[in-house]
């Protein structure tokens, strides 16, 4: 498993999964994303984005659109996406990154701290309001100094052995009821009468 920069060919995949997970896709640019990939199967498992807000008061870096496919969750994939995004922000000269999320406790394990709206730069206050109005009514802002990022050892270890979970028997095989057919009264084209 590794995390790489998104490529143009990833755009449709990203848009599909951003929509499926009801994530914020404002000002979408695939080149702003990173993608977690299984090195053996080349299967994409998760993604996230660095979004830079340029203002007259300075530039602000936001980590946004972080998502992990359901079959890859709880294996450190999201953690490594966040780590790569923090590294990208640091390489671009940012000392602090923000994230606006309805799951702040997930980010707290890496050193992010919740921030009251009145303590945020104006542009980040606007982002909180935008997210609350569009996709995450319970969104809160978090902040991290990039040099304070910490990866929990359990997530680093889980990532080394990550593999997709089985989707479960119910979701892997479709039956007649999945298509709105009552199996007790339906007749089939090739019904043998047995």
TrEMBL record:
<feature type="compositionally biased region" description="Acidic residues">
    <location>
        <begin position="172"/>
        <end position="181"/>
    </location>
</feature>
<dbReference type="GO" id="GO:0016747">
    <property type="term" value="F:acyltransferase activity, transferring groups other than amino-acyl groups"/>
</dbReference>
<dbReference type="InterPro" id="IPR000182">
    <property type="entry name" value="GNAT_dom"/>
</dbReference>
<dbReference type="Pfam" id="PF00583">
    <property type="entry name" value="Acetyltransf_1"/>
</dbReference>
<keyword id="KW-0808">Transferase</keyword>
<feature type="domain" description="N-acetyltransferase">
    <location>
        <begin position="1"/>
        <end position="129"/>
    </location>
</feature>
<protein>
    <submittedName>
        <fullName>GNAT family N-acetyltransferase</fullName>
    </submittedName>
</protein>
<feature type="region of interest" description="Disordered">
    <location>
        <begin position="160"/>
        <end position="194"/>
    </location>
</feature>
<dbReference type="InterPro" id="IPR016181">
    <property type="entry name" value="Acyl_CoA_acyltransferase"/>
</dbReference>
């Amino acid at each position: 498993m590794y995390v790489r920069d998104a490529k143009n060919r990833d755009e449709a995949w990203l848009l599909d999964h951003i929509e499926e997970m009801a994530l914020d896709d404002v000002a979408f640019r695939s080149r702003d994303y990173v993608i977690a990939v299984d090195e053996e199967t080349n299967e994409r498992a998760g993604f996230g984005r660095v979004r830079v807000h340029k203002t007259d008061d300075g530039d602000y870096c936001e980590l946004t659109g972080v998502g992990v496919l359901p079959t890859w969750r709880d294996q450190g994939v999201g953690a490594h996406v966040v780590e790569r995004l923090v590294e990208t922000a640091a390489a671009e000269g940012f000392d602090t990154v923000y994230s606006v999320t309805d799951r702040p406790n997930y980010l707290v394990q890496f050193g992010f701290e919740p921030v009251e709206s009145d303590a945020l730069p104006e542009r980040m206050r606007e982002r909180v309001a935008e997210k609350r109005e569009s996709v995450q009514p319970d969104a809160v802002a978090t902040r991290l100094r990039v040099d304070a990022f910490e990866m929990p050892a359990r997530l680093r270890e889980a990532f080394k052995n990550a593999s997709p979970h089985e989707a479960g028997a119910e979701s892997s095989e479709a039956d007649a009821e999945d298509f709105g057919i009552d199996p007790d009264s339906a007749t089939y084209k090739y019904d043998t009468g047995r």
